[in-house]
Amino acid sequence: MSRIVTPGATIGIIGGGQLGRMMATAAKQMGYRIAVLEPSEDSPCGQVADVVIEAAYDDAVGATRLAEVSDVITYEFENIDEQTANWLTEQADFPQGAKVLGITQHRLREKEAIQNLGIPVAPFQAIHSLDGIEDAAEKIGFPAVLKTCRGGYDGKGQRVVHNVEQLKQGAEELLKSSECVLEAWIPFSLELSVIVTRSRNGETSVFPVSENEHRDNILFRSHVPARIDETVSEQAKEIALKIVTGLDVVGTLAVELFMLEDGRLYVNELAPRPHNSGHYTIEACKTSQFEQHIRAVCGLPLGSTQLWSPVVMENILGEDLEDVLQAVSNLNDVKLHLYGKKEAKVKRKMGHLTATADSVEEACDKIERLQKVNILK
After folding, report:
1. Residues making up the binding site
2. For 358, which DSSP code?
3. Where is ATP bound in this sequence (predicted)?
4. Per residue in 20-30, pLDDT tens?
5. How far is it, in rounded angstroms, from Cα 138 to Cα 129?
6. pLDDT (tens digit, 9 = 90+) per residue, 31-60?
7. φ, ψ for residue 126 (rounded to 5)?
8. Which residues are annotated as a binding site for ATP?
9. How far apart are CA 237 and CA 229, in angstroms?
10. What 3 state SS string does 294-353 have?
């Protein structure tokens, strides 16, 4: 696995979304060329790539072409076809490999893997059919959260259930697309995340803990540093490092956590790639999560994760975009990132704003002032 892919080489990216775009931008600043495999035309990553392969993610010819033009291959999202991932692991330089993808693509496997490392997760039960509902409900209790094992993000593929009847209704719908997992409801006080990176050469680094605020199951804001005790912050980082090492992850891993009132932490989900809650690192850290990911998969030394200043990142959704575009002259004290998506849809992430300041509260105030002048609703 030990290898250095030097600048000037071509990095192949599976997926043409905004994470791929920001990954590509960081890589090109370092002197790399970019190839992207993406089925849609004029994708966010495709707009900045040197080579665009328009093919489905499970297209064998497309994967072969990507391997031919790339010196190393990575991805911007984890829902990659299993056969494609296995082929790339065997036939190309694909340092992240198929193993971690196979775990994180499937919520039940993911929870079992985390639990096997001795790290707390919410109590859970697998639901493979309607026949297992009552037994699972008895073991987990209510309220609970029913989730599909595969797919789903930003609240999709999930149902909060309060009784057996709601559980049956949810299972009848969700089991059509995937087996499910029933999780106990965790009465959390805060949602946190940690971005951790492990190089193909074994070096690790961890970014400051982010405190995340969600609306309608979509990340609304990230506040860094998180407003938590230092002991909790260090524990969150230790958990992230234990997972990235224990699962033999290469590249960037986002670890999402629930914090209870007493400071106890439960891991909620993993994402083996750069993450929405790590966008703050572009302006606020010595090395961004995207540059760090490129360093990791290329075998370069990892950069410093030092936080320059407190920071708040807020997502721009489709319903916000027009207000932002009409009032860009007021964006003098925050950084604007737009992703180049062709169509603005309600609840679709179109970009983000980042404000830095001497405190998280002051950074929040900067974004709140934008709302007062009707830049954001």
Report:
1. 107, 147, 152-158, 183-186, 191, 214, 268-269
2. S
3. 107, 147, 152-158, 183-186, 191, 214, 268-269
4. 999 999 999 99
5. 16
6. 999 999 999 999 999 999 999 999 999 999
7. -75, 140
8. 107, 147, 152-158, 183-186, 191, 214, 268-269
9. 13
10. HHHHHCCCCCCCCECCCEEEEEEECCCHHHHHHCHHHCCCCEEEECCCCCCCCCCEEEEE
Q: Which two tokens stand for residue 349?
A: 């992430």
Other residues' Cβ atoms within 10 Å of the Cβ of residue 92: 18
Q: Going by C-beta distance under 8 Å and a sequence separation of 6 or more, which residues neighbour residue 22?
A: 274, 279, 282, 288, 290, 337
- DSSP readout, 229-266? -HHHHHHHHHHHHHHHHHTT--EEEEEEEEE-TTS-EE
Q: Which residue segments constitute the domains of the chain, with CATH numbers given?
A: 10-94 (3.40.50.20), 123-184 (3.30.1490.20), 190-372 (3.30.470.20)
Q: Residue 148: enclosing H or E segment and its boundaries? A: strand 144-148
Decide if 341 contacts 296 (C-beta within 8 A): no
269, 110 contact by CB (below 8 A)? yes
Which pair of tokens denotes residue 295? 């360093």
Other CB atoms within 10 A of residue 4 CB: 11
Determine the average pLDDT of the residues in 277-281: 98
Distance of CA 97 to the CA centre of its chain: 17
CB 144 within 8 A of CB 185: yes
